[in-house]
Amino acid sequence: SVKNLSGLPMSAPVTLEGGYCSMDYTVLNPSGAATAYATVSTDGTYTLHAGGGDYWGNSEVGCLFLYEEVEGDFDVVLCVEDIENNNVWSKAGLAFRATLDANSAHASMLATPVRVQMTYRPTAGETSLEDSTIRNYGDVTFPSNWIRLKRVGNLFTAYRSLDGNYWTYVGEVTEAKAQLPAAGYLGIVYSTQDQDNYHTAIVSNYNSQYVAPALPTPDPSDYTFTMVGYEDGGVEGFYDYDAETGMFSVWGCGSDIWGTSDHFSFLYRPVPAGDFSLTVKLNDFPATSNGWAKAGLMVRESAADGTFPIDSRYVVMHSQRAYNTSNGQFRSAWRPTIGLNVDDAHSMSGPNYSYPCWMRLSREGTATRGYISYDGVNWEQYLETYTGEWLDGDLGTELPLYVGMFVTSHDMNSSDACAYFSNVTFVGGDVPPVGDLELFYSIEGEDLVLRWEAATGASLEVAPTADSASWTIIEGELVGGAYQARVPMAQAAGFYRLVK
Question: Is the pTM value of this prediction over 0.85?
Answer without folding.
Answer: no
